Amino acid sequence: MGRTALRICPLCEATCGLTVTVDDDGRLRSARGDADDVFSHGYICPKGASLPELDNDADRLSRPLIRRDGALVETDWAQALQAVVDRVGTIRAAHGATAVGVYLGNPTAHTVAGALHAPMLARTLGTTNIFSASTLDQMPKQIALGYLFGNPFAFCVPDLDRTDHLVIIGANPVVSNGSVTTAADFPGKLTALRKRGGHLTVIDPARTRTAKLADTHIAPRPGTDAALLFAVVHTLFDEDLVAVDLGGIAPYVSGVETLGEQARDFAPERVADHCGVSATEIRDLARGIAAAPSAAVYGRMGTTTVEFGTITSWLIDAVNILTGNLDRPGGVMFPTPPTAPAPRPPRPGRPFRTGRWRSRVSGHPEVAGELPAAALAEELDSPGDGRIRALITIGGNPVLSAPDGDRLSRALEAADLVVCVDPYLNETTRHADVILPPPPPSRSPHFDFLLNNLAVHATARYSPPVLPTDDGRPGESEILCRLILGFSGASTDADPAMVDEQVIAATLGKEVTDPHSPVAGRDVAELVAMLPDAPGHERRLDMMLRLGAYGDAFGARDDGITLADVLAAPHGIDLGPMRPRLPGVLRTESGTVELAADDLVADVERLRTALDRAPQGLVLIGRRNLRSNNSWMHNLTALSGGSNRCTLHVHPDDANRLGLDDIAVVRGPGGEVTVPVELSADILPGVVSLPHGWGHDLAGTRLSVAAAAPGANVNQLNDGSRMDPLSGTVTLNGLPVEIAPV
Ligand SMILES: Nc1nc2c(c(=O)[nH]1)N[C@H]1C(S)=C(S)[C@@H](COP(=O)(O)OP(=O)(O)OC[C@H]3O[C@@H](n4cnc5c(=O)[nH]c(N)nc54)[C@H](O)[C@@H]3O)O[C@H]1N2
Ligand SMILES: Nc1nc2c(c(=O)[nH]1)N[C@H]1C(S)=C(S)[C@@H](COP(=O)(O)OP(=O)(O)OC[C@H]3O[C@@H](n4cnc5c(=O)[nH]c(N)nc54)[C@H](O)[C@@H]3O)O[C@H]1N2
Ligand code: SF4
Ligand SMILES: [Mo]
After folding, report:
1. What are the pLDDT digits (tens) for 397-415?
2. Cβ 724 under 6 angstroms from ligand 1
3. Where are the transmembrane segments (predicted)?
């Protein structure tokens, strides 16, 4: 028998709506795409289809674990939470707030608790030692947004459904399903673009599945996109291709001339050898973007986790701006998510800056409130005042995902306290003193607070838990709220709803005094009384929706939405395509898009110097597989084996030259790994690729399927010393390596 239910997939940024079947015994049996979902229209990928297996995985932890006499043993929730609060309290009292570090991993971008409660937990601890997967990922993009628009969260995304020319740089969305751009069925959107006569350009040193769909594939040497994009900017000025009036936004843009001056040294003919791309290809690229009725340049991992990540991210949007493609349909636009506050008059902000504090050991500047993940190990293991003595991880596996996991493992082993909010006993959490496992997706609510900010089409969709949690087992929000209460001196037994009620009171208190708020001048108690009798996260969600751009303004707007409306539309509410948002989104001091911020311009000299550097030998890049998800989904039989393997892709010419056979040793600045070789004519000679997230052969984990085909940890090759200095983002793509036969 069983029944069906709807659940938004939490496994990647595409946020597909799924229809799941639930057995009478309360387990998920199958998942398929929800054809009526207003955002994803039935799309699903192999990972989404494996959601039931993930949900039912016998290796998932259901009870907290605590370390006693060296071994992790089950305990009850009250004891586990109290132990964490007591021990964190002791460490803070003895060594201060910074002695406690926090690492937030990728799933915190996909969970309700990650959006609403993890940042509060970090703030409650009052520590400056905050780390996240962002500095292994998209931070350069955010820093560029900070300088350009005054807000590192003012994401602009390609208008995939309407563009005439899409330029994808260093991304493989046919496999990754898209990132920092939320679009379900990215492959279908690329096919639709070509069907409507549009043009797809892909810039990638590998002929990926995305590149194979392209009209034009440009294959630069890894790490050289900054120079290539400067050459595009150069061409736009040189050939008089800068859009008249910047497509209508010129009144809101400053720094055009300075940018043109900076590009002067980067003629296509000058950078061609450095990039491994001919000057003609570069000029044609610039001409193609300028000539298209609309165009959108989009970059991902291959443009951020590189030596010049911030410059590259900056220039991507510079090209969008110069060609008149910012903030217009078919170009790149700022999404309006349903929980973003209703538009207010533009207000200038303070200058965007990084480095408000610095890391203790290497002096890395703070960026967007955090320090580089690559510096986590040294902050734990370098003696001296201010050392991190306790680390709390929430949904992260930095032992595999960050550089030099061996060093991080040793550092975690030596730490006074490690606490992990995580469903698995894996390479990182095996070092925990306490593991607090959240319930599986079927028993958790889902709303994309973060990813809606990146969505190419606005919708409001909410999945309540499909199944109830087992008696007494807290949801992830409750786990974090109880810790927040404990850390702020209250009892972990206190009502966790208090945490959300405080946020509600504070938010509404501010809103009613803001003359531009849709609830200006109203009574807070009256507004609070209008929220539903529901769990804290639903009350906050209702509040945010009602205050939001599409909201009912607490009854003041007849056609506005509330959570009740969203609940009444289980396939979601369609809120339409992206709309122009300039100048309202700008928070720069000048109130303009600052195209040539001083800090960005100052970094250009580093790039000029790199142009004359002797070419590196072999360089390593990453690759993703459709049936994989970073480090934590190798424990599912449905996703293991086959093409999803941890092999080294090598061009046949390189393999011949190096005398490679089946197995090779790869040496990098941080160490070496031994891996199977797979010949591939799709990768540029001189470039090799290895996927990340492997290396499941470490002792003390409980990952029975993953351990049977462990693969090797690519990040052991990386010592974390190479990074984009403006963003603290480590060079994961373009790492120099040496390779030898075994
Ligand atoms: N199936 C699957 N999907 C995923 C994930 C997963 O592990 N598996 N992970 C998710 C996460 S956390 C993220 S952040 C996204 C990432 O999403 P994407 O960025 O789309 O994924 P990647 O495969 O890392 O793509 C990076 C591309 O950059 C290319 N590249 C490397 N170096 C350079 C360079 O110097 N220049 C240029 N131009 N290109 C370069 C690589 O060949 C690769 O094709 O995927 C998400 N989706
Ligand atoms: N060489 C190389 N390294 C890379 C990358 C690369 O391309 N190349 N990609 C980088 C990128 S883009 C990213 S985002 C990082 C990812 O880095 P991390 O976020 O550190 O690692 P993940 O592998 O995503 O691990 C996710 C963790 O969350 C846990 N988890 C799963 N579901 C939940 C949940 O609902 N709640 C909680 N609390 N925990 C949960 C899992 O058990 C796992 O421990 O890796 C980075 N590392
Ligand atoms: S594309 Fe992403 S969101 Fe969609 S089903 Fe696959 S993993 Fe889930
Ligand atoms: Mo990521």
Report:
1. 999 999 999 999 999 999 9
2. no
3. none
Task: List the chain domain ranges.
Answer: 147-333+582-607, 616-741
Place of tokens 């109880």: 482
- Answer whether 303 contacts ligand 3 (Cβ < 6 A): no
pLDDT in tens, 450-506: 999 999 999 999 999 999 998 889 999 999 999 999 999 999 999 999 999 999 999
The ligand 2 atom at the shortest distance from the C-alpha of residue 103 is 20
Instruction: Name all contacts of 189-192 with Cβ < 8 Å and 24+ positions apart.
Output: 189/160, 189/161, 190/166, 192/161
Rg of the chain (C-alpha set)? 25
165-179 as b/e: b if 16+ CB within 10 A: bbbbbbbbbbbbbbb
User: Domain 147-333+582-607's class?
Assistant: alpha beta
Residues whose beta carbons lie less than 5 angstroms from ion ligand 4? 137
Whole-angstrom CA distances from 130 to 170, 641, 725 are: 28, 36, 18
Full-model pTM: 0.98
* Mutation choice for ligand 2 from 108, 136, 421, 714, CB with most ligand atoms inside 8 A: 136
**Is the link from the previous residue into 107 a cis peptide, with omega within 30 of 0?**
no
Task: Please give the distance, rounded to the nearest whole angstrom, from the Cα atom of residue 107 to the centre of ligand 2.
Answer: 7
Q: Could you tell me if 550 and 438 are in contact, meaning their C-beta atoms sit under 8 angstroms apart?
A: no
Record the tokens describing residue 4, joined without a space.
């069906």
Report the run of H or E that residue 481 belongs to, with start and end.
helix 476-487
- Compute the distance from residue 377 Cα to the ligand 4 centre, in Å: 20
CA nearest neighbour of 717 among 676, 648, 665, 667: 667
Q: Which atom of ligand 3 is nearest to the CA of 8?
A: 3
DSSP 430: G
